[in-house]
């Protein structure tokens, strides 16, 4: 009964490098959401994926950010050419179907130096 | 634009006090409202409300939804230091998103 697993927990990148954040949803969940959280702020929606499909990426910047949820393996949030403003906690959540309660991972804290 | 607003932003109480947290929303095609508790890490699910006027209860926590006035409240009675956390409200709508408010930071003093 593993919950949502995110790794790494902490990631430090220099400006210009790439960051890859991984998320394995709860077993049997096919809906994955990525959120970004800044200190003292709420969760900002980035992208909603189902297996092999991006359903809604309206919260994700069009440049440098991409997400995937392949048929096999974890969902990946990829940030290319990171900048200091990308420093934040990135949370992944999964649900059994749309509208069901989201189950969250412990997040990846990205620091860009 | 869909919006979820929580109040107060922060709250400090003493153990044993009762607190009421508020969540108001403006969304297209409202489906449900959810409450989460976030301590240091992952938000954990508390309640999901879809119908007006029906109270959901779990121990000292309870919540109710008013779909006419577009808000929900989360009550915590006999607060304990372990209730200290950020409480997040989220709303689902016809756009497939779960839209979160900025949260209420609750601190319970011993």
Can you tell me about this structure?
The complex is a heterodimer of chains A (113) and B (110). Chain A is an all-beta fold. In chain A, 0% of the residues lie in helices and 50% in strands. In chain A, the strands form 2 sheets. In chain A, strands 2, 4, 5, 6, 9, 10 and 11 form a 7-stranded mixed β-sheet that branches. Chain A has a 4-stranded antiparallel β-sheet with strand order 1-3-8-7, with no helix packed on it. In chain A, a hairpin with a 2-residue loop joins strand 5 and strand 6 (53-56). Chain A starts with a strand and ends with a strand. The mean pLDDT of chain A is 94. With 110 residues, chain B is mostly beta strands. Chain B has no helices and 11 strands. Chain B has strands at residues 3-7, 10-14, 19-26, 32-38, 44-49, 56-58, 61-66, 71-76, 85-92, 98-100, 104-109. In chain B, strands 2, 4, 5, 9, 10 and 11 form a 6-stranded mixed β-sheet that branches. Chain B has a 5-stranded antiparallel β-sheet with strand order 1-3-8-7-6, with no helix packed on it. The mean pLDDT of chain B is 93. Chains A and B meet through strand 5 and strand 10 of A and strand 4, strand 5, strand 9 and strand 10 of B.
Sum up the structure in keywords.
heterodimer; A: mainly beta; four-stranded antiparallel sheet; B: 110 residues; mainly beta
The number of distinct β-strands of chain A equals 11
- Class per helix and strand makeup of chain B: mainly beta
| Tally of DSSP β-strands of chain B | 11
Largest sheet of chain A: 7 strands, mixed
Overall pLDDT confidence of chain A: 94
- Overall shape of chain B: globular
SSE layout:
The complex is a heterodimer of chains A (about 110) and B (about 110).
Chain A (H helix, E strand, L loop, with lengths): L4 E3 L2 E4 L5 E6 L6 E7 L5 E8 L2 E4 L8 E4 L6 E5 L8 E8 L7 E2 L3 E5 L1
Parallel strand pairs in A: 2-11
Antiparallel strand pairs in A: 1-3, 3-8, 4-5, 4-9, 5-6, 7-8, 9-10, 9-11
Chain B lengths: L2 E5 L2 E5 L4 E8 L5 E7 L5 E6 L6 E3 L2 E6 L4 E6 L8 E8 L5 E3 L3 E6 L1
Parallel strand pairs in B: 2-11
Antiparallel strand pairs in B: 1-3, 3-8, 4-5, 4-9, 6-7, 7-8, 9-10, 9-11
